[in-house]
Amino acid sequence: MSPTPLQAFSGIARATPEHTKRANTTKNGEQMTGAQALVRSLEDLGVQDVFGIPGGAILPVYDAISEDTKFRFVLMRHEQAAGHAAEGYALATGRVGVCIVTSGPGATNVITAIADANMDSVPMVVITGQVGADAIGTDAFQEADIVGATYPVVKHSYLVTDAQDIPRVLTEAFHIAGSGRPGPVVVDLTKTAQNGVMQYTWPQRMILPGYNPTTKPHGRVLGEAARMFQRSYRPVLYVGGGAMRSDAGEEIKALADLTGAPIVTTLPARGIVADSDPKVLGMLGMHGTVAATGAVQRCDLLVAIGTRFDDRVTGKLEAFAPGARVVHIDIDPAEIGKNREVDVPIVGDVKTVLNALIPEIERLHDESGTPNLTTWWKLIDEWRQNYPVTYDEPDDGTLAPQWVVEQLSQQADPNAIWVSGVGQHQMWATQLLKFEHPHSWISSGGLGTMGYGLPAAIGAAVGSQRCFDGKRPVWLIDGDGSSQMTSEELAVAFLEGLPVKIALLNNSVYGMVRQCQTLFYDKHYSATILHEEEKTHLVGVPDFVKLAEAYGCEAIRVTTKEEAEKAIEYANSVNDHPVLIDFRVWKDAMVFPMVPAGESNDNVIYKPGVRPLQRVAGLSSDASDEADAADNANASANAAQANE
């Protein structure tokens, strides 16, 4: 078994103090400690906001942070939350998020946020304290091999033992985090490096000989992809978070308008093209719309753009888009062909690739005309008309959580940034909110981290103040289960003066797990009931209104539609402090449509007993039959032209 990075490091001969001193005096520049150099490097890199929590092994760095420091430091209450806040900041602003935590438990606490950022390709630099170089490998107090522990879930990591390396390492870390496929980078900073004396110079020269992300596509594959569009009569643009990271919304819309292809998105890509655009079918997959999922299942060309064929999208992989040829565009070559065989692989930055692909398609259109997609859109519009997202009304006098989300969407500022926790509320939010701008939706996608919502909203609110003069209000839609994992961060929202508006959909259960127990486990609600009022005779455990007020926040409890509408209107008017609205909602509300885990997307359940994509005894809808007939006719015409 290979040694971990710290185990390997412990076998390396240590530099003598005389050698270190000679090394430091050989460089020109301003003399300072490594801790001071780290703060100066962040300033010179243009960092304006940092999240974190101090501790013994990182204390020299915190000692170097003063009132004169150029970046704002936001003191969080838990290291995981510091990481999520950096994520929310990065997604709201497009900048690299930064957090600074200590060694041992401080560093291990932030691993969840690192893994989350890695799954969702979020640019983030995590600086962790580490024991002195001589103590590494001795099981010193609060020693943990954070480089080794995070190795599977980071884009890159550094163990820094020499103060002189700090400016270069920070320069490289920010470049790696924000370029290519974005991701988290860990800089593990020993106390030896923090306390060491060095000579500071700027700018720094990076040493990254093996890091050269491919951004420009090869011309040959562009031509092949353009010809695929020319031969397709049922194309679909399947758009993922990579397109959002590339800021390619305008290019996605241009490609859809040019080719006539519908747009379906993954959860992180919601809003990349405005929902009001008729070509946007919404999210596909486990809780996607019937139109989006059906279009992918029946397409003949699937153009995957900045996405990775996640199991929540594909369902049973071998049954996913069974009749489609696949064009896959991604900046990470490791994703292409990883889960689905690809006909045309295109490695490159999404925005760059699409700007090169569109002229190729235009040229073929000028030469041969455009495919007729009338029958294809007739089928899609049939699904869209017959199977819109809908929901049942509660039978216990509580509010329908879906209705609450609709009201939030209708009353909100069109420039609002929406953040969610993880659970049913997350799915209702992505189904029912109307996104009209890219970068308006922040949620934990790949890892599905409960507790993500509040700290990410704090990061987004700091980003809104920094980059948008606070004119993009931040709404958090959270669940009572998810929120209790990081509710201590309410203190941060209050003390930092962040006007986060929190819509808490409180059903006193772990809703998504309860839904699965209802549908697949004979209503055996094992370990999913958070509170039963009839047993405690209390309004809630916790009482979220009292909890929020204990942290200095304003809070409102609502139980009727009239109260809800007034509370939302009031929250929208508040711009100087956080407001929490405790919506008492139906515990048996369901998220539909739904594809049962591991099943084919053809088995999507629109509502119990209704599976619109299943064919009975080989029969299909009239529109689907017409699409098949049209495809056959078009294919025959193409074959005839080819033989002429």
Q: What this model shows, in words?
A:
It is built from 27 helices and 20 strands. The protein is an alpha/beta fold and 644 residues long. It folds into 3 domains: 28-200, Thiamin diphosphate (ThDP)-binding fold, Pyr/PP domains (Rossmann fold, 3-Layer(aba) Sandwich), CATH 3.40.50; 219-387, TPP-binding domain (Rossmann fold), CATH 3.40.50.1220; 401-584, Thiamin diphosphate (ThDP)-binding fold, Pyr/PP domains (Rossmann fold, 3-Layer(aba) Sandwich). Strands 3-2-4-5-7-6 form a 6-stranded parallel beta sheet, with helices on both faces. It has a 6-stranded parallel beta sheet with strand order 11-10-9-12-13-14, with helices on both faces. Strands 16-15-17-18-20-19 form a 6-stranded parallel beta sheet, sandwiched between helices. Helix 11 packs across helix 16 (350-368) and helix 17 (374-386) runs antiparallel to helix 27 (622-643). It is globular. The termini are far apart. The model is unreliable at 6-26, 616-622 and 635-644 (pLDDT under 50).
